[in-house]
Amino acid sequence: MFPELFSIGFITVYTYGVFVALGFLAGTYYAATHSQDVMSKQQVYDFIFYVILSGLIGARLLYVVMNFSYYLSKPFEILRIWNGGLVYYGGFFCVLIFAYFYCRNKKFDIFKLTDIFSPALALGHFFGRIGCFFSGCCYGKSSDCFLAIAHKHPTQLYEAFGNLVIFFILNEVLKSSHKKGYVFVWYIFLYSILRFVVEFFRGDDRGVFMFGMSPAQNISIVIFLTAVVLLLKKNRSIEV
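The chain above was modelled as a monomer; its predicted structure follows.
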């Protein structure tokens, strides 16, 4: 692993933080270049600032909850997010809640907005998981398969390149004729499958298991079923 990119005196630049920043920049650029029909570029930048903030808070909060006993004894460690420790689904749901109220207040079309930001999210997530790989978090189970790195499944890379594939799929769907909200539903459908599968290969602490599955897998099942219902009813449910 390569958690520290470089150090200059007392300043250390962490590889995880750099890749997370690259993910935000890539996602922002994509959203800004595809948002002309919904909001101006300046409005995109303003929106993304709050998205980043709410996403980080939600992702960190769920991670802290899942590792509550550790952070109860070391509360100041909660702020050290540059060492990793973000749960994607926590950030995802927090951003959705924020986006709903933000769009309602600003009179933006949330369905068009989620369509634009879904590919951007998958692209940003790709870079984020690369950062996880270099940081050494979200690691996989021990394995001797040909894909193994240091005798472990590189689950960070599995999810990273899975997200890259999702990005290309969603980008094509976005360019095609579709009903509002359709790209977003495809995103949650595809990502829930990816996350559910990758979880089988994870070797780090996954929180409290229920029904023999990790918290992320249980959440993925709920999201997958929701997406299936929306896709089956796309002519009524997705179009607004």
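The longest strand covers residues 4-8.
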